Amino acid sequence: MIKLNAQTVNTFVESSINVFSQFSLDTDQPLSLGNVYMEKLKLSQYEVEIYSLLSGDYEGRVLLGMSVDSAIEIAERMTGAAVDTFDEDAQSALSELMNLILGSALHELEKNKKNVKMSPVKLKYGGSEPIGTLQCPYPVTVPIYTQVGNMELDIAFY
């Protein structure tokens, strides 16, 4: 198993930015990144968390957290239809967003001879327990500021 490093974190960040750009999350206001940080046993502050577990050369998880309002706006942009509530269709769109981000990142890692597989994407919304730490006590967190709201990309390896 390989340790988490800045190059690997950057792969996931760049993939996120590229996917967000495909859905016009950067048209009126450019995407910007906050200061990267690590916080022991960090619990998410977000209503919506989309995540996948990784295995292979890297073992851990990647999580994207955001408000429900941001999630609805992203779902609208992805589907081209009005979204009034964060229903099953909207949740499916957000899961697909994470699939696109991870697919892109894993493709880049594969080009660098890294063998990494992802589990099916899961989405947490509402009252269920926070999964922000999920056996990964020191996630690297990258704040992402978009015109549809603030998000955090958490990358953590065991």
Structure description:
By secondary structure, this protein is an alpha+beta fold. It has one domain (6-157): 3-Layer(aba) Sandwich (Chemotaxis protein chec). The chain is built from 3 helices and 8 strands. It has helices spanning 6-22, 68-79, 88-111, and strands at residues 32-33, 37-38, 48-56, 60-66, 116-118, 122-125, 140-146, 149-157. Strands 1, 2, 3, 4, 5, 6, 7 and 8 form an 8-stranded antiparallel β-sheet that branches. A hairpin with a 2-residue loop joins strand 7 and strand 8. The N and C termini lie close together (9 Å). The model has no long low-confidence stretch (mean pLDDT 84).
Q: How does the SSE layout of this entry go?
A:
Layout: H1 6-22, E1 32-33, E2 37-38, E3 48-56, E4 60-66, H2 68-79, H3 88-111, E5 116-118, E6 122-125, E7 140-146, E8 149-157
Antiparallel strand pairs: 1-7, 2-7, 3-4, 3-5, 3-6, 4-8, 7-8
Helix pairs in contact: 1-3, 2-3
- Class, according to the CATH hierarchy? Alpha Beta
Count of structural domains: 1
- Summing up helix and strand content along with how strands pair, one would put the structural category as alpha+beta
Helical segment count: 3
Fraction of residues in helix: 25-40%
CATH superfamily: CheC-like
Assembly annotation: single chain
Shape assignment: globular
Instruction: Please state the average pLDDT score.
Output: 84
- How can the largest sheet be summarized? 8 strands, antiparallel
Cα gyration radius (Å): 15 Å
- DSSP strand content: 25-35%
* Element pattern in H and E: HEEEEHHEEEE
> Unreliable stretches, pLDDT < 50, 5 or more residues?
none
What name is given to the CATH topology? Chemotaxis protein chec
Q: In the CATH hierarchy, what is the architecture at level 2?
A: 3-Layer(aba) Sandwich
Instruction: Give the termini separation.
Output: 9 Å
How many E strands?
8
